[in-house]
Write a structure and sequence with these properties.
Distance between the termini: 49 Å
Bound molecules: pyridoxal-5'-phosphate
Radius of gyration: 22 Å
Oligomer: single chain
Shape: globular
Number of strands: 11
Length: 398
């Protein structure tokens, strides 16, 4: 609920719909602009590159302002949101916003691989040291904080291994020590995990996934507490970041139906995860709503539901057999990304991606993004493929 007592569905339907942006139409138009014209030189000089003010195309138009404002309204306690051309760009800008040479960053060991890459290359070159930590460290993070620690980055659950973090616990420790917390909240979105309300300072989304929801847009967002808005604004301007109006419009359209889509993604994914957990070829299912998932207790305490991305570990077999299994699936596309209306299956090989903790596994793993198809059809598809695992004696897709 927001301060008016409205629920999330109501907020999703109304957020960001300022009459001066929409006119008499329900949605804002796609305002494409580089040049903004003024009547006089005095007006041109007076225009400031502020959020929601016409000045120059990079500063946005009502299309992108409406999406940014809607995302802020979905995150109780937030001050403002800025948009980026991808989720990866949003992660990079958020980190550059809080760090400077000589700082140490505590980065969760289960982070999305390109986030790690940023830390190990560009941030390192600019004099920032990254220390990776166990996603399940909880309040034990206090022992890792040193003189130079400036920020803690969380991703909960991790998008390959799905450990759920004690976000409120970690953020409470950080706050006491004056350390900024950032979270990649793409899996849950603010609908299932209102990150700022749960203690984070900065909430990052790859809107490419569930916000867009239709696998046709690349976009990212950074939402911050009120005291960080100025700093965010300055960073966006310094980096020259902006998001195209067509992409913002698509994401805004997706956002309106986020709640019903997430409900369906979540229900189908949980049903499929529970079914998979009972199959003899499956060693383990990594789904935050199942007790077998590390950190499941935090999911039960802090989340308002689960989305549609999870993984399962096969019993025995090898990567070639796992890859054949994926290729034999009829209703699952093979491709990166997730959160779209269509189901995807990809190989998941997290072992080489960790440095602070060891990831052990009984066999190769598959990551599933459960779409909006009928769960019965998806289960039947998985059943056909699993029946022949690991022999590979399967009919390959046409
Ligand atoms: C957890 C997570 N964060 C961030 C990103 C980056 O988003 P984008 O692909 O829009 O750059 C991804 C993309 O897969 C992701 O899975």
């Amino acid at each position: 609920m927001n301060e008016k007592g409205e629920g999330k569905g109501t907020r999703l339907a109304t957020a960001g719909r300022r009459p001066e942006w929409t006119g008499p139409i329900v949605n804002p138009a796609v305002w494409r602009a580089s040049t903004v014209l003024f009547e006089t030189v005095a007006e041109l000089k007076a225009a400031k590159p502020e959020f929601a003010q016409f000045q120059y195309g990079r500063n946005g138009t009502p299309t992108s302002w409406a999406l940014a404002e809607a995302l802020t309204e979905m995150e109780p306690g937030a001050g403002s949101t800025r948009l980026f051309p991808s989720g990866a760009a949003a992660v990079a800008a958020a980190l550059l916003m809080v760090l400077e040479a000589g700082d140490e960053l505590l980065m969760v060991d289960s982070a999305y691989a390109p986030t790690r890459m940023l830390c190990d290359t560009l941030l390192k070159r600019y004099g920032v040291t990254t220390r990776y930590y166990d996603p399940l460290v909880g309040e034990g993070i206090a022992e890792l904080i040193g003189e130079r620690t400036r920020a803690i980055f969380l991703e909960s659950p991790g998008s390959l291994t799905f450990e759920v973090q004690d976000v409120p616990g970690i953020c409470a420790v950080a706050r006491k020590r004056g350390i900024v917390t950032l979270i990649d909240n793409t899996w849950a979105t603010p609908l299932l995990f209102p990150a700022i309300e749960r203690g984070c300072d900065i909430s990052i989304l790859a809107c490419t996934k569930y916000i867009g929801g239709h696998s046709d847009v690349m976009l990212g967002s950074v939402t911050v507490r009120p005291e960080l808005v100025k700093r965010l604004d300055q960073t966006v301007k310094a980096l020259g970041q902006t998001a195209g109006p067509d992409d913002a419009w698509l994401a805004l359209r997706g956002l309106r139906t986020l709640q019903v889509r997430l409900q369906r993604h979540g229900e189908s994914a949980l049903r499929i995860a529970q079914w998979l957990a009972e199959q003899p070829q499956v060693a383990r299912v990594l789904h935050p709503a199942l007790p077998s998932c590390p950190g499941h207790e935090y999911w039960g305490r802090d989340f308002d539901g689960a989305s549609g991305l999870f993984a399962f570990v096969l019993k025995g077999g090898d990567e070639a057999a796992r890859d054949r299994l994926i290729e034999s699936l009829e209703h699952f596309g093979i491709g990166w990304s997730w959160g779209g209306f269509e189901s995807l299956a990809t190989p998941s090989d997290p072992i080489g991606l960790r440095t602070a903790t060891r990831w052990t596994t009984e066999g190769p793993a598959v990551r599933l993004s459960i779409g909006l198809e009928d769960a019965d059809d998806l289960i039947a598809d998985l059943e056909r493929a699993l029946a022949r695992y690991p022999s590979g004696d399967v009919e390959q897709r046409a």
